[in-house]
């Protein structure tokens, strides 16, 4: 495993099956040199968090288009905290109104991207965020994967 | 046109290019080296009869209502009546959606179209842990027949056609429809409508699934057979390209993958021994109307011609009704923007016009707020007025297939037909639509096309007004958006609890066990037992769970 590569888990939570965006972003991130794991559809928040920890990712990229974002994002954050994994950053994408975006960022979601955000902006954000996280992990010592 | 005439025109065109065109280009170069359709095909500077492929008028175009139906499935088309104006509605509980149906009908809509919430689409009851945060959000919550009755309160199912956008659980909603008709004494022969019920495109594009592919095909088969026997005016399947396109496919892929799915359904039902002419007339289709005006019009015409040929030559259909492709259409949601949203009104109008010039039978026009929320009443009214203006003010409905004979439109129709037929041959060589699902063939094609499109858009090769050209700084949402009632989930769960408390639960369990027995017997039809189960107020989640216990769940192999 290349320790330097940013590791990203792209996920779709809830019952929503629209995966065009998450797949396009996943490919862009991979083409930009990041290690990308895609969970596939219909994941429960617990499954996403477990996968993120197991795969030792820097960033979770979550796509939600069903309107259930105000329920799912807080749950993900709570689960990460419970498992002592709240150093993992959460980035979101999908259909959200400005007031919801503001509320979610206040809760601790690193960024939320709405449709028509340029791919290069998304890639750059993931890369910066992920690189900083990887560096912090390395600095905190090679203790192996999180329990 | 004979060869010498064709050659003469080609020669004259070449001469025109070297003289007038070249001279003018020196003063004013053309905007691009190559012009392309949205699907990436080169567009010629000018189309002449020489660019239209060989073949006589009657062979390629003919007359509407007659093979090969290129110009339309009916002999009089909109001169008799316009396409069905069918705006989708669905949110909250049945009562709220019922009100929206009533409102839209009062505004002049001529058909009902219902969308369901994610739990209903995916087969989970409103009180299931998986449904948290999703009840009544993307569509209406329907757990039991009691909800379905409320959904259609005051609406005579024998008088207005009802289309239901529902897939893995479509057979349950159809059962509810039949049960309600029985209860109300509405003759089955007067039931008119559609269930989308196209599970193949779910595996490929929309991604709503429950069971594995084989039992899912069996469910579709059972609905088609039941419908052929009992519901003479009902369309048990709406073979769909819309979602395939919205997932990122090109127009060619949309048409090809849709027709491939149609072929798979025909083959599935033929296995029962039913004659093709018994069920094929009621297979209906659903295409998108996207932004590239002429490409879309040509796509619809090509699809009709290709399907007619498939039905006659591949499946040996005898009745003209078996060969004529009828389609519902929706303007493209993904082409609409969240910025400068009122621009979407213009987009929708143009896409709707393409659908009409392409001869659709039924049309939903998107709201200006499509990219922001589920449509508001105001947005839907405006979208409906758009259709009414096209129908009543423009004159395009006065003559059939008015763009027939346009050199460009016929050249595009020919080219699309050729490419779709080539794709169908490829799909056949890979083992057919079901084999292609398993191999992730469709999914990879779509993901590649989606990525290529995104890259082209960001390079500025694809202009989106307001997004990568004519941008404005301020975000503005000019009218109120639909708001989700936060109490919906609680109300719906309470209702479900009451319905379950009031029913004969022992009987429900008995029927669900019978349902499982029927499921295990491949030759048996699921519809009658499902109708009994919904009448006893079995919930859709209970019905689905009983069958998951028999068949298991589908698991995709995700690729990107």
Architecture overview:
The complex is a heterodimer of chains A (147) and B (560). By secondary structure, chain A is α/β, with parallel strands linked by helices. Helix content of chain A is 46%, strand content 17%. Chain A has 5 helices and 5 strands, in the order βαβαβαβαβα. A 5-stranded parallel β-sheet of chain A has the order 2-1-3-4-5, sandwiched between helices. In chain A, helix 3 (69-82) links the parallel strand 3 (59-64) and strand 4 (89-94). The model of chain A has no long low-confidence stretch (mean pLDDT 91). By secondary structure, chain B is an alpha/beta fold. Chain B folds into 2 domains: 3-51, no CATH class; 57-68 and 82-396 and 406-458, Alpha-Beta Barrel (TIM Barrel). Chain B contains 22 helices and 10 strands. In chain B, strands 1-10-9-8-7 form a 5-stranded parallel β-sheet. In chain B, strands 2-3-4-5-6 form a 5-stranded parallel β-sheet, with helices on one face. In chain B, helix 6 crosses helix 21 (527-535), helix 10 runs parallel beside helix 12 (293-314) and helix 20 (505-520) runs antiparallel to helix 21.
């Amino acid at each position: 495993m290349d320790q330097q590569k940013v590791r990203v888990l792209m996920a779709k939570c809830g019952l929503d099956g629209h995966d065009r965006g998450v797949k396009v972003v996943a490919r862009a991130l991979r083409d930009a040199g990041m290690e990308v794991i895609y969970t596939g559809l219909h994941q429960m928040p617990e499954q996403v968090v477990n996968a993120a920890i197991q795969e030792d990712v820097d960033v979770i990229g979550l796509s939600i288009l069903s309107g259930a974002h105000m329920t799912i994002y807080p749950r993900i954050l709570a689960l990460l905290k419970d498992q002592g994994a709240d150093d993992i950053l959460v980035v979101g994408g999908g259909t959200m109104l400005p007031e919801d975006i503001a509320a979610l960022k206040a809760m601790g979601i690193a960024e939320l991207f709405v449709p028509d955000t340029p791919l290069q902006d998304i890639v750059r954000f993931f890369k910066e965020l992920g690189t900083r996280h990887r560096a912090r992990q390395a600095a905190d010592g090679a203790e192996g994967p999180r329990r | 046109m004979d060869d010498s005439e064709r050659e003469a025109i080609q020669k004259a065109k070449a001469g025109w290019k070297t003289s007038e065109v070249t001279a003018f280009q020196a003063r004013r170069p053309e905007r691009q080296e190559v012009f392309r359709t949205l699907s990436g095909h080169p567009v010629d500077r000018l189309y002449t009869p020489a660019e239209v492929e060989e073949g006589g008028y009657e062979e390629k175009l003919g007359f509407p209502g007659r093979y090969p139906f290129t110009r339309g499935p009916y002999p009089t088309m909109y001169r008799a009546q316009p396409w069905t104006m069918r705006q989708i509605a669905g949110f909250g509980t049945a009562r709220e959606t019922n009100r929206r149906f009533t409102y839209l009908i009062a505004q002049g809509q001529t058909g009902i179209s219902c969308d369901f919430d994610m739990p209903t689409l995916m087969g989970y009851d409103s009180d299931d842990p998986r449904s948290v945060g999703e009840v009544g959000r993307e569509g209406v919550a329907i757990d039991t027949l009691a909800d379905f009755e409320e959904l259609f309160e005051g609406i005579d199912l024998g008088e207005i056609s009802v289309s239901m956008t529902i897939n893995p659980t479509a057979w349950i909603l159809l059962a509810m429809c039949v049960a309600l008709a029985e209860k109300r004494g509405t003759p089955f022969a007067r039931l008119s409508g559609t269930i989308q019920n196209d599970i193949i495109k779910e595996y490929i594009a929309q991604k709503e699934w429950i069971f594995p592919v084989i039992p899912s095909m069996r469910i579709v088969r059972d609905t088609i057979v039941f419908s052929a026997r009992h519901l003479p005016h009902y369309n048990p399947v709406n073979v769909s390209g819309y979602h395939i396109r919205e997932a990122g496919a090109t127009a060619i892929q949309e048409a090809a993958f849709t027709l491939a799915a149609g072929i798979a359904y025909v083959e599935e039902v033929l296995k029962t021994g039913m004659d093709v002419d018994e069920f094929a007339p009621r297979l209906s289709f659903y295409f998108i109307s996207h932004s590239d005006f002429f490409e879309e019009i040509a796509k619809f015409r090509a699809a009709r011609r290709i399907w007619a040929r498939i039905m006659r030559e591949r499946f040996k259909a005898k009745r003209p009704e078996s060969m004529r492709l009828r389609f519902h259409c929706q303007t493209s949601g993904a082409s609409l923007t969240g910025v400068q949203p009122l621009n979407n009104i213009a987009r929708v109008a143009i896409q709707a016009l393409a659908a009409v010039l392409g001869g659709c039978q039924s049309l939903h026009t998107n709201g200006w707020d499509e990219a922001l929320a589920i449509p508001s009443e105001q947005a839907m009214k405006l979208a409906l007025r758009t259709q009414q203006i096209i129908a009543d003010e423009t004159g395009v409905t006065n003559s059939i297939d008015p763009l027939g004979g346009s050199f460009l439109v016929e050249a595009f129709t020919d080219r699309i037909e050729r490419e779709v037929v080539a794709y169908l041959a490829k799909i056949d060589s890979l083992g057919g639509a079901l084999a292609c699902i398993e191999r992730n063939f469709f999914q990879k094609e779509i993901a590649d096309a989606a990525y290529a499109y995104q890259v082209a858009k960001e390079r500025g090769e694809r202009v989106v007004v307001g997004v990568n050209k004519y941008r404005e700084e301020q975000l503005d949402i000019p009218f109120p958006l639909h708001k989700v009632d936060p109490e919906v989930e609680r109300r719906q769960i309470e209702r479900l609890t009451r319905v379950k408390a009031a029913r004969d639960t022992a009987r429900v369990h008995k029927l669900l066990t019978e349902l499982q027995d029927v499921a295990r017997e491949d030759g048996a039809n699921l519809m009658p037992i499902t109708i009994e189960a919904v009448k006893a107020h079995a919930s859709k989640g209970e019905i689905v769970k009983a069958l998951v216990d028999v068949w298991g769940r589908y698991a995709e192999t995700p690729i990107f």
